[in-house]
Amino acid sequence: MDEAPANGLHIAVLVKHVPDAQFDRHISGDDLTTVRSESILSELDEYALEAALQLVETHGGPASGHRITAITMGPAGAVAAVKKSLQIGADDGVHLTDEALGGSDASATSKALAALLRHVGPFDLILTGMASTDGETSLVPAQLAERLALPQVTFAASLDLTPGDDGWKLAARRDNDTFAETIEAPLPALVSVTDQINDPRYPNFKGIMAAKKKQIQVLSLTDIGLEPAEVGLEGSWTRVEAAAPRPPRTQGVLITDEGDAGIRLVDFLAGQKLL
Amino acid sequence: MTTVLVFLDHAGASLAKSERELLSLGATLGDVVVALAGEAEQAYLDGIGSYGVGEVYRPDSAEASDVLVAGKAVFLTEAVRASGAEILLLGNSYEMKEIAARVGVRLESGVITDVVALAGDLTATKADFAGSYSVDCRVTTGIAVLTIKPNSVEATEAGLPSPPREVRIPVEVPEAVARITGRTDKPVSGRPELAEARVIVAGGRGVDGNFGPLEDLADALGGAVGASRAATDAGWIEHSAQIGQTGKTVSPQLYISAGISGAIQQKAGMQTSKVIVAINKDADSPVFEIADFGIVGDLFTVLPQATEEIRKRGL
Ligand SMILES: Cc1cc2nc3c(=O)[nH]c(=O)nc-3n(C[C@H](O)[C@H](O)[C@H](O)COP(=O)(O)OP(=O)(O)OC[C@H]3O[C@@H](n4cnc5c(N)ncnc54)[C@H](O)[C@@H]3O)c2cc1C
Ligand SMILES: Nc1ncnc2c1ncn2[C@@H]1O[C@H](COP(=O)(O)O)[C@@H](O)[C@H]1O
């Protein structure tokens, strides 16, 4: 096992509370924001948390002074994402919550999260999911790297750290459409991970009991030095003007193969002018 | 007249279909100039010129492309400033969206991704919640930074090839960056790219390691081959073929799903397809709920029969 540098790593994992995709999801209200009932810890952020846990385990475990902080921004209920992270194994949590944050787009979200990370940091590593599962678009990690002037290592399909005399070095792999890249960066860095990187663990009974004693720090905008007008609908640089549910797809023809289904398929395609 | 900057990063021998779409869309909005990150062959530059583009902005050093995303974002920001563009159009790959994200912060400008339609007043339409909502949005601050999904606009015919004027942009790469240390090309299939394909034949766990019958049908239809995560995780096909929430989102004219159960994460990537055909052994598979034409049957008999029939009809 590698020797870790004297001070342990402080890792932030950004976890979002999102509407469960297993239920119908809605946009509503005058300001066309997402309805957040039936919400869960974003599935894709579990991979970021698991990556953090594995890094700590590889490099000497919690006894080496490493610490994982689960961080979320969202309404009161969003703290559930932090609580679940604590049950899975994060050491402590932070919840940024403020009325004024409602309706934040990616730019406002990344502004608030950047201020939050500066306030509760410094961190050696900031880990995020590849995208939030509620229709957001992978903009936040890149914008955080830009705002915090950190090396950006996004869509990592693998992630390793090596301790060295001049600090930790990070190595990652990233898959593009036509090629794969290997990437290196010094710490501190911002890393988003894909669902290819690991198999997230579930909370167990011990973890659930231990989580009850872990601390969650609740912060408001004032605490992190932001004005309400800098975030939320007012601070956003884009605006949703209309949102309409699409008519759900309906089932068409269903046939059972009786030896000629391939031919009937071609008939169907010809009928649809798809050949 | 409004200046529209189109960012291109392909730099092959000729313009890709999605790149021609971006240039065509740009021309409907104003005067088009191009920012080009990588090295490019003369024929590629001439191709850009054939869309009436007079100026191509390029970085003055290769370093912009050696670091992940940050370098290209700096370059593109400076190209926007140099050109005075009010609209910036990019492709819709992960890297393009990330470059857009950072340019947005640098220029204090709103970014809208996954745009499928753009009105003259710059109202952008996109799908949300895995295609279950259609959302109209607008950039309210700064220039409009928009990433456009392939197949959203019709590419117009190019004019005669002509070399655009090159403008070199000095690029100062930020200090704290991730460096790209190695690059391995993936094998090319010769089939259309998934995001651009008119027809996609996709296979899942039911394919059981043998994509042959799917490839044959895809070739008969001039289509691309896609897969569920179960099939890519099994290593039967490249990860880049994965369709769904954590893979590609596609909207072809025709999506043929074979041996895929239709989990919510798979549907997220394909349910905006025009016509969906599904072949599955299990009549209760959720994929049938969204299929225009469903076949309860064995893909290993149905697909080859269809391929043969298409060939027989000389289609
Ligand atoms: C965070 C996360 C992200 C994910 N992202 C994606 C994603 O992007 N894309 C994706 O696809 N999945 C994704 N998944 C996985 C998804 O949940 C499903 O597990 C996966 O789509 C199942 O793949 P499948 O349908 O091929 O396999 P299965 O569900 O095992 O279905 C195989 C089907 O093949 C049928 N079959 C078997 N043999 C035959 C035959 N000879 N002929 C016809 N039919 C046959 C069976 O009846 C069955 O319906 C994700 C999961 C998670 C947790
Ligand atoms: N409100 C939030 N709270 C915590 N993390 C977030 C929030 N929004 C985005 N993130 C992180 O950024 C990643 C990408 O989100 P997005 O850019 O919204 O697709 C997510 O997987 C999270 O790790």
Automatic annotation (TrEMBL), chain B:
Matching SMART domains: ETF
Top-level division of the source organism's lineage: Bacteria
GO annotation terms (biological process): fatty acid beta-oxidation using acyl-CoA dehydrogenase
Signal peptide positions on this chain: none
Keyword Secreted carried by entry: no
Residue ranges occupied by any Electron transfer flavoprotein alpha/beta-subunit N-terminal domain in the UniProt entry: 4-180
UniProt xrefs under InterPro entries: DHS-like_NAD/FAD-binding_dom, ETF_a/b_N, ETF_a/FixB, ETF_asu_C, Rossmann-like_a/b/a_fold
Binding site for FAD: 205, 228-229, 242-246, 280
Cofactor: FAD
Name of protein: Electron transfer flavoprotein subunit alpha/FixB family protein
Native source species: Arthrobacter bussei
UniProt lineage: Bacteria, Bacillati, Actinomycetota, Actinomycetes, Micrococcales
